[in-house]
Amino acid sequence: MNVLLVALGAAVGAPLRFLVDKHMVSRWLRTSTPPALPWGTFTVNILGSFVLGLLTGVTDRTTTLLVGVGFCGAFTTYSTFAAETTALAGSGHRGKALLNVVLNLGAGLLAAVLGAVLA
């Protein structure tokens, strides 16, 4: 049953990440060239951190598995963050790569704390 809860949450989180990252944020930015920073990945990671922060007050295992592990695990993406940051640095944009790290980690922590405070 636990695996099914995680899978159900992930089945919602992964496509939602794709829609937010590649469609909503990209359309909002409306750029013909790649943006200065990977804002789609930043957006999903900050939203996911906030949701996980909200879950700090939840002790129900079902909710934690469904939303925390399943949904947030599939919605957020450390691997894409790492790959995009590495690509920025590798293409000579080391300052942008560093800014991406600082923004993702700093804003992610703040979002998680805000979620926990609101919980």
What portion of residues is helical? over 70%
Q: What is the H/E order?
A: HHHHH
Unreliable residue stretches:
none
The count of strands amounts to 0
Which value, in Å, is the CA radius of gyration? Answer: 15 Å
Instruction: Determine the structural class based on helices, strands and strand pairing.
Output: mainly alpha
Strand content: under 5%
Describe the structure.
By secondary structure, the chain is an all-alpha fold. The protein is 82% helix and 0% strand. The protein has helices at 2-29, 39-54, 61-75, 78-90, 94-118. Helix 2 (39-54) packs antiparallel against helix 3. The protein is globular, with a radius of gyration of 15 Å. It starts with a helix and ends with a helix. The model has no long low-confidence stretch (mean pLDDT 92).
Layout: helices, strands, pairs:
Blueprint: H1 2-29, H2 39-54, H3 61-75, H4 78-90, H5 94-118
Helix pairs in contact: 1-2, 1-3, 2-3, 2-5, 4-5
